[in-house]
Amino acid sequence: MHGKIDTLDISTHFKAHLELENNNRIIFSGKFGVGKTFFIKEFFSAYSEKYNAITISPSKYTVSANEDIFELIKVDIIMNLFCNHDLSITKFETSKVELITNFLNQLPFNLSKFFLVALKNIDPIGSFINWNIFESILQSYKDYEKEIMEKKTNSQVLSEYLDRSLDIKGNFFENNFITRTIIAELRGVKKNNKKNVLIIDDLDRIDPEHIFRIMNIMSAHNDYLLETNKFEFDHIILVCDIENIKHIYHHKYGPKVDFHGYVDKFYSYDIFYYSNMDAVSLFIREADLRLKNEREEEFYRFIFSNLIESNQITLRKLVKYSLSFELKDFIYYEQNGLDDSVLWSINSHPDFLQTSKLVVHSQEIKILRFFKLMNLVYGDFSSFLRALEIMSKQLIGKKAQWELISEVFLFVAEQFHLLSARNDSLFITKVIKHDDLDRTNYVSKVYFPTVRIHGIDCLINLKWNFSNQYDGSQLYFDNSVTEFVNKKMVFSNSEFSISKLIDTLYECAIIAYKARVLERIGINARLNEENEMR
Prior knowledge:
Blueprint: H1 10-18, E1 25-29, H2 36-46, E2 51-56, H3 69-84, H4 96-106, H5 108-120, H6 132-151, H7 154-164, H8 172-188, E3 195-200, H9 208-219, E4 235-240, H10 242-253, H11 259-263, E5 272-273, H12 276-286, H13 294-309, H14 315-321, E6 331-336, E7 343-344, E8 357-361, H15 367-378, H16 381-394, E9 399-401, H17 402-420, H18 424-427, E10 429-435, E11 440-447, E12 450-453, E13 456-461, E14 481-484, H19 487-492, E15 495-497, H20 498-514, H21 517-520, H22 529-533
Parallel strand pairs: 1-4, 1-5, 2-3, 3-4, 7-11
Antiparallel strand pairs: 6-8, 9-15, 10-11, 12-13, 13-14
């Protein structure tokens, strides 16, 4: 199970990978829904001063078996140049040989007519040829050359090609001709030593034939142009789930065919793996979740990554609904004074209280904000609870090291206490002793509140003391820090059941529902009896 992430931020890690010497081909692999596209977009936006990123998505193409997907890749690159980069308005430069060859390629039918007419006009004994025909060809070429040299800019050439490519037609030389023009424009946008990066997104979501067609094209050197990558891109990044590509490859060529021997030519160093935890960490950092501390962040990372792992949510859906929202604060629970029905010994009253009115505000119960977000993501609260149930069942028997899960456990324990505890036990812990002489119980000592879940005792340390007393003007649980009463004993067991922790989170949701607090934060939950009795 996932725990704390590596302290090396994923963006820093990928940047270091990208900057490896001669790392011009990269496979960026991650499972569907973990936010690969989101990360790539955010990364190259952050480093736009160093890279010109051109992203194409072949999964959006509609291509029949007779059409070449490479033509559509060219169109996609051209469209990106027009939309995101200022194409140069320089005159198109080409050689006489290239002009003549392209002219002949564009007019094969007319050229045939010219020669047929010429043959008809040849004298039977070869004494006469009608040179007017060849003069007509020459004039046609001159007109073509004039049109190209006087009117065409690179932008116009690419624009016309874009229009023609709507029907995906053309021949080999035209491909070469347009490829040269694309390369010229890509060179033009490389300013201040910026590097051009081609990103091919969702590679594993297209027709298998096209997957391997694209991979083979992009891995091939154009020796006659002295290119390292197609179109002279400094980096080509294939974004996919490499396991999907592997399954498709074995399905197409057979399970015994060596996949690794085939795929290793498509990356320069190692495959860069983007995990659920990487995605969640980026999302938490970028989204405006208003988290208060690292422990709360750790809770979100843990829950989100496990929901994704159990296929109960996608990061794409999280990003869609993680818009900033406000929760109006209200009083969740209050009481006037401590319980006097039990005797108090001298000096046993807490010295950190200056007021008799004790209050818990909704903003102190941080998990309510999490519930609100999940209600938005899932559409209704019962669907979220169902996702927790499924996740809990999938995780039965799986355990996590305490070093990895302790922060999440302590966060859930504190939230469970705030939602479920009532009366004095919500605010303090009383040590009750029995006087054998008077046969009465009395409070001998008071300290901060404690909570027990799954047989483990936790202490909620508050910031209040004799010199800094609670007077009701601040939040009672503000900056509280929950810890294990006996950490050594807890860690001696080394592991804890993940599903039990998920079940406690589920119980917190049910308590909030029964207390009608969900309604007060805009969640119109309608739970059945099975949910409430679970």
